[in-house]
Amino acid sequence: MKPSPTDDLCTRCGLCCDGSLFADVELARRDNSAVLESLGLEIEEDGERANAELLVQPCAALRNCRCTIYAHRPGCCRTFECQVLQAVRRGTLSSAAAHATIAEAFTRIDAVRTRVRQLGPVEEQLSLRDQCTDAVARADEDSRPQIKTSADQLESALADLEHWLHSEFLRPIKSSAPAARRKRTPSEA
Questions:
Q1: Is the same domain home to 62 and 105?
Q2: Are 162 and 129 in contact (CB under 8 A)?
Q3: CA 175 to chain centre
Q4: N or C: which end of the chain has fewer CB within 10 A?
């Protein structure tokens, strides 16, 4: 029996939960944040919208590309499907091509993470974007020109990565604006 696209791809990817695609995930009003917190997830208030809550990424429930609270995951996680998964389901992308795209994403993400580590210690519990922001902030406090150059290269590499991730895994970018950082709720899709 052939595995479902979700079993085949999602359990080998995890980019939607590991802090690479999103810095946080908007929870639906029906999600019980107290229950999610009791399961070990970090929830915070959305500073931009009243009574909105965010699931901080990387998700504490992600282990080896698998959700440890799968049966209790928030609604936004239940409904989210990246472009790669959607294309495989439609038959417009082969499983092999999808695996190649995921592998390319890991390679590109690792290159950015390497640049972050070159600028100092990394807080692994932060999203990739937040790790980069912290590294650049530390570099701004350093007077050495090579550190400033490394920070500039990191910012450029992150922008390129986010653009590529957005175009491959999310919706195609219609402008040169920075990539979206949050999952959309089904009503916003």
A1: no
A2: yes
A3: 20
A4: N
Number of Cβ within 10 Å of residue 18's Cβ equals: 17
CA distance 181 to 22: 5
Does residue 130 sit in helix, strand or coil? Answer: helix
Residue with tokens 């530390």: 138
Amino acid at 45: E
Which of 51, 79, 107 represents a domain boundary (last residue)? 79
Q: What is the pTM of this model?
A: 0.85
Q: What is the pLDDT of residues 129-178, one digit of tens each?
A: 999 999 999 999 999 999 999 999 999 999 999 999 999 999 764 544 44
- Domain span including residue 117: 83-178
Beta bridge partners of 55: 25, 43
Count up the domains in the chain and report the number.
2
Angstrom CA distances, 138 to 8, 63, 144, 178, stand at 40, 30, 12, 22
- 60 with 87, same domain: the answer is no
1 falls within a domain: no
